[in-house]
């Protein structure tokens, strides 16, 4: 009768080799197997590594270019002359572009003012007051959102129905931001029917929504 130790050893042997008493596999001589050379290992990430010194080289090249440029500027009269000519050319181009942008803006202002006048304005006192409040509140909201042109257009419409435009301009001058005021001034200039006083250019925190219409 097998002992406990024999049973334990038999169980471990079964797990390791499969079946107890199974014949061992015949050994195959290594000489009978053909020798196949191993393929070389290919690294897919074979990108060239940029040496750290390349950054220093770039800085040195930039520094040398600056030194060369400064040397030519100080010693070559023709180079200085061409450089000044290029600077003047760029300044003139920037000035012409600014004038063109301003001209386009004025044309756009005229178009929007003409559209507002074509839409018409209320004539009844109650309608004027309601129209005024709506346009002023809308203008303040648009100004807070950064929509300066649309805000100025709302303030212009409110100005059209206010009984004393010069007084309202004084209030605008204390409450409306300068970019919006500049656009509003262009809209007023585009409307020959609207006569107001000059802008005072002061600043205040007072509101304009509660201005009554008499």
Automatic annotation (TrEMBL):
GO molecular function: mitochondrion targeting sequence binding; protein transmembrane transporter activity
Topology term for the membrane: Single-pass membrane protein
Keyword Signal part of the UniProt annotation: yes
Pfam families (UniProt xref): MAS20
Annotated Gene Ontology cellular component terms: mitochondrial outer membrane translocase complex
Subcellular location: Mitochondrion outer membrane
Family: Belongs to the Tom20 family.
Protein name as catalogued: Mitochondrial import receptor subunit TOM20
